[in-house]
């Protein structure tokens, strides 16, 4: 589809860095994406809700594109597919205490304390929040392609 080559590739570029910006900065991007979806969707009425257009074409909205890219980053991290620079970027709960809890069995990460809104928007904090909301059956997929397709399918069900 034309949308993927012209728009989606540019939106996804570096979204991990800028995807948690203030909503006043992200809103114009969302508006442009919604207009593009309406332009590419010429065979249906203009009055149709944008969410249903996204769902019909199986395309994620801006906040969900960000969550997908961060989730892919966390999948790669938890499976040791990232460069050595990121080796100790996140801390597993098993590294904090030796107790056998539900979170140690599911390979959960320690959520660092955020002292401000900007601290909560940092990747180190937001990535763990996003990762902890993913169902276990998706987290334990055998490859990144399966993880991505299952994650997308799960998100599109909520539209």
Task: Put the structure in a nutshell.
This protein has 159 residues and is mainly α.
The N- to C-terminal Cα distance equals: 20 Å
Q: Share of helix among residues?
A: 55-70%
- Global structural class: mainly alpha
Taken from the alpha-carbon principal axes, the silhouette is elongated
How is this structure best described in words?
This protein is mostly helical. The protein has one domain. 58% of the residues lie in helices and 0% in strands. It contains 10 helices and no strands. The two termini are 20 Å apart.
Note the topology.
Layout lengths: L1 H11 L2 H4 L4 H18 L9 H8 L4 H17 L23 H4 L11 H4 L2 H10 L3 H4 L4 H13 L3
Keywords:
159 residues, single chain, elongated, mainly alpha, 0% strand
């Amino acid at each position: 589809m034309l949308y993927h080559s012209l728009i989606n590739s540019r939106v996804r570029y570096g979204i991990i860095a800028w995807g948690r910006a203030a909503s006043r900065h992200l809103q114009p991007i969302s508006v442009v994406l919604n207009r593009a979806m309406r332009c590419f969707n010429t065979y249906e009425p203009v009055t149709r809700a944008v969410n249903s257009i996204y769902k019909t074409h199986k395309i994620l909205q801006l906040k969900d594109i960000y969550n997908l890219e961060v989730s892919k980053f966390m999948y790669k991290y938890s499976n040791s597919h990232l460069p050595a620079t990121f080796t100790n970027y996140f801390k597993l709960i098993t590294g904090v205490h030796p107790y056998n809890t539900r979170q140690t069995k599911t390979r959960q990460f320690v959520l660092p304390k955020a002292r401000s809104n900007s601290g909560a928007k940092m990747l180190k904090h937001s990535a763990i929040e996003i990762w902890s909301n993913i169902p276990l059956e998706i987290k334990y997929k055998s490859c990144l392609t399966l993880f991505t397709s299952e994650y997308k399918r799960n998100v599109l069900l909520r539209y």
